[in-house]
Write a structure and sequence with these properties.
The protein is an alpha+beta fold and about 250 residues long. It has five helices and eleven strands, in the order E-H-H-E-E-E-E-E-H-E-H-H-E-E-E-E.
């Protein structure tokens, strides 16, 4: 069992909205938010005694399974923000972790997010029961507050979708778990939405997005990406390897 040694169970860090984190409208990109979120998640988990290096001793690792993010007000280029993260305990097989991004000067909430994580054995790639390793630790250090009250749900497949593109998994897509990094899937999803739609400054600001990670993708896999319209302001994007669904996402626009 891991030792609890953190003095504070949440983690807060500055989060400057730099040029490489924004899109052509100078708004925070979903990809950038997701990369920052996974970084501070590991920092918080490490402080609690269940970060990457602690889990590696048992040949297991955290894997993000589901995510839902709401843009209350899009962070913009050069804005000074802070990100806070905390875990809320267990929900079925998942460890639930929330995030908030606030304006550093006014404390106004800009982004809210909830995520669901699982433990995976690095050799077998199978799920590992958390109570075998860190269940008591998660319960003892949980913070019972919500950025988003309801945990992210599993997205249902849609039948009315159109092939958009194929992507060959490249070296730059792979993270230290030797599979495609979770943020890359959202980057692919944004990229297949019509370029004219994304470049239109009217009514195309992202309001929220959610994503479900179903299966791993690895080096040189070919991922076929499909898109469908849920409504005028909602897009469904799905990635497949053959007939196997790798990820599903729903992106909502204002």
């Amino acid at each position: 069992m891991f030792r609890i040694f953190a003095l504070m169970n949440n983690y807060i860090t500055s989060f400057p909205i730099s040029s490489f984190r924004v899109d052509c409208h100078k708004r925070l990109k979903p990809y950038a938010f997701m990369t920052m979120a996974q970084e501070v998640a590991n920092l918080n988990a490490s402080a609690l005694g269940c970060g990457y290096s602690h889990l590696l001793e048992h040949n297991i690792t955290w894997v993000l399974s589901r995510m839902k993010t709401e843009y209350v007000k899009s962070p913009i280029f050069l804005q000074d923000t802070v990100m806070e993260t905390w875990h809320k305990g267990m929900n079925g097989p998942f460890s639930i972790r929330d995030f908030e991004v606030r304006d550093a000067s006014t404390s106004e909430i800009l982004v809210r997010c909830t995520t669901s994580w699982v433990l995976v054995d690095l050799d077998s790639r199978h799920l590992v029961r958390m109570d075998r390793y860190i269940g008591p630790l998660l319960e003892q250090t949980a913070i019972k507050k919500d950025a988003i009250v309801k945990p992210a749900g599993k997205i249902k497949p849609r039948s009315e979708i159109t092939f958009a593109m194929s992507h060959k998994v490249l070296f730059s897509d792979i993270d230290y778990n030797m599979h495609v990094n979770n943020a890359k899937y959202m980057e692919w999803a944004i990229d297949v939405i019509d370029a004219r739609e994304r470049a239109d400054t009217s009514n195309r600001e992202i309001a929220s997005y959610e994503i479900t990670f179903n299966n791993e993708a690895r080096m040189e896999d070919i991922i076929d990406i499909y898109i469908g319209n849920i409504s005028d302001r909602e897009r469904y994007v799905e990635g497949r390897r053959g007939n196997e669904i790798i990820f599903q996402s729903i992106i909502n626009f204002l």
